[in-house]
Write a structure and sequence with these properties.
The chain is of the alpha/beta class. The longest helix has 20 residues. α2 packs across α3 and α7 crosses α8. The strands form two sheets. A five-stranded parallel sheet has the order 2-6-1-7-8, sandwiched between helices. Strands 3-4-5 form a three-stranded antiparallel sheet, with helices on one face. The protein has one domain: 3-Layer(aba) Sandwich (Rossmann fold), CATH 3.40.50.300. The structure holds 2'-deoxycytidine-5'-monophosphate. The site of 2'-deoxycytidine-5'-monophosphate has 14 residues, from α2, α4 and α8.
Length: 226
């Protein structure tokens, strides 16, 4: 069974998808894997940074993406065998990821990879919770259960500020708000695989709701399909 979770940056998709896969594995007779598709686009950006590509020449990044080996296991992402899960969260990688995500050739490679990962899991009798921007629309349009997890830009800005504070860092509300709305604009307007609410998705707005509560809602809906 494939469960998709799409939504804008900062809506809590990663944490929700990871926890949902974990709880479904505990509470059913199937093992559910979690797929963070954003980390796959981030991995290509990391590779571009390491190989010092010319970001103005799309073909250079495409060539790297064609040869790269991206694998996932236990919710972690590996690039040519190296665990890059944490590394790809850096601001430098985040800034360059658009060159991978906006590139139709690279998207085609990533979509094929996501489908092949899902196929292998299903063949082994496992389930998949996959999160991103296009999972329920373009990649797995036939998934039996789709969620659209969102929150207002104000709420997402406050959460980001909170995360920074926890790490002893300061953030500026207006600056973070600008970054978030800019990313929304980019994510919804890209010509291939744009962020779009799937027509048949369950919509969850997480403003003022704890992650535990969100996961509970996802879990209750998912259990109807088990
Ligand atoms: O979810 P994230 O912040 O790790 O995603 C990083 C970038 O990759 C984000 O700007 C949107 C893009 N992305 C995408 O285009 N399609 C996906 N399925 C997942 C992420």
């Amino acid at each position: 069974m494939i469960i998709t979770i799409d939504g804008p940056a900062g809506a809590g998709k990663s944490a929700a998808a990871r926890l949902l896969a974990q709880k479904l594995s505990e509470q059913s007779d199937k093992t559910f894997e979690y797929l963070d598709t954003g980390s796959m686009y981030r991995a290509i950006a990391l590779l571009g940074l390491r190989r010092k590509v010319d970001w103005n020449i799309a073909k250079q990044l495409e060539n790297l993406a064609e040869k790269a080996s991206i694998t996932v296991a236990d919710g972690k992402t590996f690039l040519d065998g190296e665990n890059i899960t944490e590394l790809v969260r850096s601001p430098e990688v985040t800034e360059k990821t658009r060159f991978a995500a906006d590139n139709p050739v690279i998207r085609q490679i990533m979509v094929a990879l996501q489908r092949s990962i899902a196929e292998q899991l299903l063949q082994h009798g496992k389930g998949l919770v996959t999160e991103g921007r296009d999972q329920g629309t373009a990649v797995f349009p036939d998934a039996p259960l789709k969620f659209f997890l969102t929150a207002t830009a104000e709420e997402r800005t406050k959460r980001r500020l909170g995360e920074l504070q926890q790490r002893g860092k300061q953030g500026n509300f207006n600056e973070i708000f600008r970054q978030i709305t800019e990313r929304d604009q980019r994510d919804t307007s890209r010509s291939v695989g744009p962020l779009k609410e799937p027509t048949n998705a369950i919509r969850i707005v997480s403003d003022g709701i704890t992650i535990e509560n969100v996961v509970n809602q996802l879990l209750q809906e998912s259990k109807k399909f088990l």
